[in-house]
Write a structure and sequence with these properties.
There is one protein chain. With 547 residues, the protein is α+β, with helices and mostly antiparallel strands. Helix 8 packs antiparallel against helix 11 and helix 15 packs antiparallel against helix 16. Strands 11, 12, 15, 16, 17, 18 and 19 form a seven-stranded mixed beta sheet that branches. Strands 1-10-9-8 form a four-stranded mixed beta sheet, with helices on one face. A four-stranded antiparallel beta sheet has the order 4-5-7-6, covered by helices on one side. Strand 8 and strand 9 form a beta hairpin. The chain has 16 helices and 21 strands. One of its GO terms (biological process) is peptide transport. It is found in: Cell envelope. Its main location: other.
């Protein structure tokens, strides 16, 4: 792979306690009579950036997209892959490189048009086309046949290894066996697009609810890119509409935990995400649900800016920072929501050894644990090169939890590393994503939610080139072996992924894992059937009921 376009996928960040309440528009009462028609009131912590699945980059958008659109396969409540627009699981050739998939006869767009194999071909070719600057274009690089050549060398996108054998049969040719490929198709960039509708609106497609054509369980109403509130309404054209009980889901953007808690208490929200003191105060509340997540928060350390080495090009600086952070203190005292300290980039309870069924973290062990003595040792070595006084800017989003974590880390590092002045810069989440993607930062809070069910969804994000400017021939070579040589050798593939993570986190100290998220949710007793996948979307309510 010659080059890789990497985007840090935004996570659904937990809020913390703040004084005062702010929301978007006035939130409708969850006790109002519209619940007779199965209307529920939910929240997101951020605005939806786009409903064009090619430019997906944030959790709020992913959550909306998986309800408004639908791909070949879905994720069920047990994190299993199940047919969606596909009629059944794929027929896979003996060499693992050809997938033949039959589509449902009753899958339609919200305007009544049938969903066809050509809708997937059109969408995937658009995803591969460099001119479209799709955020997840890199997922085709080295997976679908000719994806690398189209992305990197200018090959015609029509030569991508996907074709419609007829209206209802899709054939996919892979570059090599990809063990996680079916799970990849549950992710929005691989959803279909209706060519006639998309071409009608061009670059405006997906920018507001009038420019969206749905094939999922819901349609989106009253939304544009500045909206702090929107509605998802049941799609009568959806093939499984009889099983969709909710008529409407009203969603409000609520960024403060105090606001979410108060609205839940006053019956204006049916579900609220809380953290910190609100979790501690509600430990005995029967409405409290703690949901383990696979999102990992970590520090990105930019090693190069404007083609010049930064302070983080110094390995001793990176190690000093990694050893100095008290992760247990962050999850116990700041987040206090069940989140756990991370000592690796791959989360626990995400994937298991294909031979022994052991969890990845069990096999890989803890990497770069907190060690104050080692932090000071490396800092003293670093100061011989960087000087006795140094200022570093820490970039975070403006979400409550992230700002609180940043403030705690600011104190920890300044206490542990004499002469360091750490300045915190908080900006809106999408701005933070853009700044880190463009390498316009020194130290930044990163977050990665898995796009598909495999450790490579994490490891590939740091392949060279990447937005931390970390470069390692050893790391890239391991990734090449995982993707090119070990597709049909699960045991070697597993060990190579363990070795790659160790190279990244321990040997090179390229990033600093901080914590793995656990979401604390207050959910009304009469709202049933919502579940929370450990990859892709963070919340699925397609078959939820409100009684």
């Amino acid at each position: 792979m010659k080059k890789k376009i990497i985007l840090a996928c935004a996570s659904f960040i937990i809020g913390v306690v703040l004084v005062g309440c702010t929301t978007g528009n006035n939130t409708k009462s969850a006790n109002s009579s519209d619940n007779d028609a199965q209307t529920v009131h939910l929240m997101e912590e951020n605005e939806v950036a786009s409903m064009n699945t090619l430019v997906t980059q944030d959790t709020a958008s992913i959550n909306a997209q998986v309800h408004v659109f639908e791909g070949l396969y879905n994720i069920d409540q047990d994190n299993e892959i199940v047919p969606a627009v596909a009629e059944d699981m794929p027929e896979i050739s003996e060499d693992g490189k050809t997938y033949t998939i039959q589509l449902r006869d009753d899958a339609n767009w919200s305007n009544g048009d049938p969903v066809t194999a050509d809708d997937f071909v059109y969408a995937w070719r658009r995803l591969a086309s460099p001119e479209n600057e799709a955020n997840y274009m890199f997922l085709l690089d080295g997976t679908v046949a000719n994806g690398s050549e189209i992305i990197n060398d200018g090959m015609d996108p029509e030569k991508l290894g996907v074709k419609a054998n007829n209206d209802k049969e899709l054939e996919i040719q892979l570059e090599k066996p990809v063990p996680y490929f079916t799970s990849l198709t549950t992710f929005p960039p691989f959803f279909p697009q209706n060519e006639e509708f998309v071409e009608e609106y061009g670059k405006e497609y997906g920018n507001d609810s009038e420019k969206i054509l749905s094939n999922g369980a819901f349609t989106m109403e009253n939304w544009d890119q500045s909206s702090m509130e929107w509605d998802l309404e049941k799609n009568p054209e959806y093939y499984d509409a009889d099983k969709v009980k909710l008529e409407k889901v009203n969603v409000d953007v609520i960024k403060e935990t105090a606001t979410a808690f108060n609205l839940f208490q006053s019956d204006e929200l049916d579900q609220a995400e809380i953290s910190g003191e609100h979790v501690k105060q509600n430990e005995d509340n029967p409405n409290l649900q703690k949901v383990p997540d696979s999102k990992v928060f970590y520090f990105k350390m930019n090693q190069k800016s404007n083609d010049k080495d930064t302070i983080f090009a110094n390995e001793d600086v990176r190690r000093a920072v990694a050893y100095a952070i008290d992760k247990e203190g962050i999850v116990d005292d700041v987040l206090a929501d069940g989140s756990s300290a991370s000592y690796g980039y791959i989360p626990k309870d995400f994937v298991k050894n294909p031979e022994t069924d052991a969890d990845f973290r069990e096999d890989a062990g803890d990497l770069m644990e907190t060690n104050e003595d080692k932090a000071k040792e490396h800092w003293e070595k670093a100061k011989k090169e960087i000087g006795d006084e140094i200022t570093i800017e820490l970039l975070t989003s403006d979400e409550d939890a992230e700002k609180k974590v940043a403030e705690t880390v600011q104190y920890q590092l300044q206490e542990a590393l004499p002469g360091l002045n750490l300045e915190v810069k908080s900006v809106p989440l999408n701005n933070s994503i853009d700044l880190t993607r463009n390498g316009e930062y020194e130290l930044a809070m990163g977050r990665w939610g898995p796009d598909y069910q495999d450790p490579m969804t994490y490891l590939e994000s740091l392949r060279s080139p990447n937005n931390t400017n970390y470069e390692s021939d050893k790391y890239d070579d391991l990734l090449d072996k995982i993707t090119s040589d070990y597709g049909n050798d699960p045991e070697k593939r597993w060990q190579a992924m363990i070795d790659a993570e160790k190279t990244l986190v321990e040997e090179d100290a390229a990033i600093v894992p901080l914590y793995q998220q656990t979401r604390s949710l207050l959910v009304k007793d009469n709202l049933k059937g919502i579940y929370y996948p450990n990859f892709g979307a963070s919340t699925i309510f397609k078959y939820a009921t409100y009684n």
